[in-house]
Design a protein that fits this description.
Serine Threonine Protein Phosphatase 5, Tetratricopeptide repeat; 2 domains; 0% strand; Tetratricopeptide repeat protein
């Protein structure tokens, strides 16, 4: 719940920032010189890129959350079996061991979104965020019935 609140607060701050930047872009365009219009257009592009990124990130989080709730209802969420250091960090060898099992599970059932979801969690636990995101995107696509490239 804390992560959701943090995400919403940061998203709201970003939207306010995008509005402020956009208003500066409009003011530059209103100046009417070639240089200020060019800068104004460039400044206006940035909030649109930011909004696009925020929208896609929010959709990704919503879809991943939906999959997690569905998997939890089925009793298929991965159990936290990772060993931790005294400081609470995940033990690397433990994460690698779980990752190997999740990867083997996914190789046995490459069209199962549940396996890809659990693999994404294993990637995340192993601190490989880019691969965790790609695995979760694949799980989402398979869940939605979309064709997935190999």
């Amino acid at each position: 719940m804390r992560a959701k609140i943090t995400y919403c607060v940061l998203a709201a701050v970003l939207v306010v920032y995008f509005v402020l930047v956009g208003s500066r872009g409009v003011l530059l365009i209103k100046q009417g010189t070639v240089l200020t219009v060019a800068f104004g257009v460039a400044v206006l592009i940035l909030p649109f890129i930011g909004l696009w990124f925020l929208w896609h990130t929010t959709q990704f989080a919503r879809k991943a959350g939906r999959l997690a709730r569905e998997l939890e209802a089925e009793g298929g969420l991965p159990v936290d079996e990772l060993k931790r250091t005294p400081g609470g960090r995940i033990d690397r060898d433990s994460a690698d061991e779980v990752f190997d099992r999740r990867r083997a599970e996914t190789e046995r059932a490459p069209e199962d979104w549940r396996a890809w979801f659990r693999l994404a969690v294993a990637y995340h636990d192993a601190r490989d965020t880019p691969r965790a995101r790609k695995a979760m995107q694949r799980a989402i696509a398979l869940h939605e019935g979309k064709s997935v490239r190999v």
